[in-house]
Design brief:
15% strand; globular; alpha/beta; three-stranded antiparallel β-sheet; 3 domains; single chain; four-stranded mixed β-sheet; 247 residues
Length: 247
């Protein structure tokens, strides 16, 4: 494998082709954590229309991810600005300090793109993502916490455990315990901060809704208490007048 690419790819288009056009079974889906979340929901859904997916997907593998870039970045930064053709690019990776995007070429040369220059090509949904480490997948893999040339592998489900055990017995994996746990814990902590920031954003929206709809007040208060850990005020049972916002 050439490793992570950090470019958006239509995973579900390929999955549909594999299932409905090629009739494949025992499929392993390698994707970003957000796509792995969708796979988990599909497999757990009682909707019978999703049974073709449930019958075909055997394993979900998520790649560690801090953001996915639109393919336009290749054309506009690498091709036009740096004079590097698409065919020359072997892989894209994020530097350990996350300040640069590393561009490794097939001839061994390595170039870098400042993250601030690449950020405008990030998919919109990445800004609110709360899963860096593929928590919904059967297996999660990435370079974070691993020595050069190796990958960190996290088993997250019984299916993932069976896969790793069988692959190890067949000598298809070279397992070693030398993982930098501190790096993984830092990434998880950053994920928790982003998740909390998203919760505060949702609370702000809910509070605005409560101004127009007093029925939303109790839910807004519950969310406020949960985030700020403060006791709730008692609410009056009287109905708000037309000139009152209900607060």
């Amino acid at each position: 494998s050439v490793g992570p690419q950090y470019l958006w790819a239509p995973v579900f288009d390929a999955l549909n082709e594999a299932i409905f056009e090629r009739g494949l079974k025992n499929i392993a889906v390698v994707s970003t954590p957000c796509a792995a979340q969708a796979i988990r929901k599909i497999k757990a859904s009682p909707n019978t229309l999703l049974s073709p997916y449930q019958d075909s997907i055997r394993l979900s593998i998520a790649v560690f991810c801090t953001g996915i870039y639109r393919p336009e970045m290749i054309e506009e930064i690498l091709v036009k600005s740096m004079g590097i053709s698409r065919d020359q690019v072997k892989r894209l990776d994020v530097s350990a300090d996350r300040d640069e995007l590393s561009v490794e070429l097939w001839d061994g040369n390595v170039h870098s793109i400042a993250r601030q220059d690449a950020e405008k090509y990030t998919l919109t949904g990445c800004g609110s993502c709360d899963d860096y480490l593929g928590e919904s997948a059967d297996l999660a893999v990435g370079t974070l916490g691993a020595p050069d040339g190796k990958s960190t592998l996290i088993v997250r489900s019984p299916a993932g455990e069976v896969f790793v055990r069988n692959a190890n017995q067949l000598h298809l994996l070279d397992l070693a315990p030398d993982v930098d746990s501190a790096s993984l814990e830092a990434a998880s902590s950053e994920k928790d901060r982003r998740e909390r920031a998203q919760a505060f954003n949702d609370l702000n929206i809910l509070m605005l809704d409560a101004l127009a709809d007093p029925m939303q007040r109790n839910e807004a208060i519950k969310q406020f208490v949960r985030l700020y850990r403060t006791p709730a005020r008692s609410t009056s049972p009287t109905k708000a007048s037309n000139s009152c916002t209900g607060c």
